[in-house]
């Protein structure tokens, strides 16, 4: 059985940090919209109090480099120092859908400038004394390529350019990794993308091939980064360090419409998906995002925890589970109150409301995993069965 050791806690908290421009041109800044920029110290202390000693959070490139080559770290340094004081380790997203306004994302200069920014960030954290640096260079390359390159849902608001955008973001991720490692060879890299399952509808068996092709598309970005596909992009296996998988209740669907629910016998267990990702790349896996909304939050965490335990028992190296977003947030499209968090949106005085059912589910999850990992190897059921 695998024992997670990579992060400071098996369960992590993730702060929504998207900075993209919507279809109407408005830039989002979810760190500011949730008050996390002002309340980082309190938020990290809350995470630590719940045993979440590692988190995902964001570096807001559009605020830091408003002038090419000049970095204003005032939006980041208070967060870095607050995390250190709270004893919380951060995986920093460097490009979470957004970039400075003067850059053309389609041009080679985007890759070059992002690499310089990534290297400068890594040098800053090194000089700040961060002992276990970790970075996600470009968040959700596959989803971004689809939403921004094919569907015009957000920047760069393109159609039929998804493959081109995916290649560009892969180049940027590779260049950023080189720059990060040059500044700080200790850095761990988490490559984050959704994992999915796609099946043909029961009445459309002829779609089986197309459904499998759609399912396998989830691996394209990782394959490119690892040099297994499109090697001219510069990928190499060493660029795949930790595979971050994002998984929600709607990540399984029928081709041409319809979500596959957990009560459907065709629903694929999440543990099987985790095992397939590990078999494909041979790298440790982090559940980099998972969560639900409203009353579904606690039952969903119960389910994911059970599947992660099953994967660990099968010796799949799952290094952690990140509850995401850990704070309620205003919806991207309409500012609606999305009740996804362990804590609700802050009030005018900076207070946050704890969602008790999810807190109880987190305690159950931590206890279940803790009990499993605390068993002496000689008494673990899977080892007894093998003897």
From TrEMBL:
<dbReference type="InterPro" id="IPR017853">
    <property type="entry name" value="GH"/>
</dbReference>
<protein>
    <submittedName>
        <fullName>Beta-glucosidase/6-phospho-beta-glucosidase/beta-galactosidase</fullName>
    </submittedName>
</protein>
């Amino acid at each position: 059985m695998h024992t997670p050791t990579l992060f400071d806690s098996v369960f992590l908290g993730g702060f929504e940090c998207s900075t993209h421009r919507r279809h109407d041109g408005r830039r989002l800044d979810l760190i500011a919209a949730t008050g996390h920029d002002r309340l980082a110290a309190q938020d990290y202390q809350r995470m630590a109090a719940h045993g979440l000693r590692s988190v995902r959070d964001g570096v807001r490139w559009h605020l830091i480099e408003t002038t090419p080559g000049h970095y204003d770290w005032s939006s980041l340094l208070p967060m870095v120092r607050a995390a250190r004081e709270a004893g919380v380790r951060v995986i920093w997203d460097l490009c979470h859908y957004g970039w400075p306004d003067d850059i053309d994302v389609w041009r080679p200069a985007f890759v070059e400038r992002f690499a310089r920014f990534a290297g400068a960030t890594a040098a800053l954290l090194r000089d700040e004394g961060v002992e276990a640096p970790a970075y996600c260079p470009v968040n959700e390359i596959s989803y971004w390529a689809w939403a921004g390159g094919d569907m015009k849902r957000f920047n760069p608001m393109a159609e039929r350019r998804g493959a081109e955008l995916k290649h560009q973001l892969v180049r940027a991720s590779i260049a950023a990794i080189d720059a990060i490692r040059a500044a700080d060879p200790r850095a761990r890299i988490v490559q984050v993308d959704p994992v999915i399952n796609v099946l043909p509808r029961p009445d459309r068996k002829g779609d089986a091939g197309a459904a499998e092709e759609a399912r396998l598309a989830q691996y394209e970005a990782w394959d490119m980064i690892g040099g297994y596909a499109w090697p001219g992009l510069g990928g190499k296996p060493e660029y795949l360090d930790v595979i971050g998988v994002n998984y929600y209740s709607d990540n399984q669907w029928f081709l041409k419409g319809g979500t596959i629910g957990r009560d459907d016998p065709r629903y694929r267990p999440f543990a099987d998906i985790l095992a397939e990702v590990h078999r494909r790349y041979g790298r440790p896996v982090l559940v980099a995002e998972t969560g639900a909304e409203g009353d579904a939050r606690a039952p969903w965490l119960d389910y994911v925890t059970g599947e992660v335990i099953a994967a660990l028992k099968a010796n799949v190296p799952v290094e952690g589970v990140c509850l995401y977003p850990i704070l309620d947030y205003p919806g991207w499209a309409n500012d609606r109150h999305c009740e996804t968090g362990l804590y609700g949106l802050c009030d005018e005085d900076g207070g946050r409301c704890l969602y008790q059912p999810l807190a109880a589910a987190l305690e159950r999850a931590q206890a279940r995993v803790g009990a499993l990992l605390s068993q002496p190897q000689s008494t673990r059921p899977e080892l007894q069965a093998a003897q």
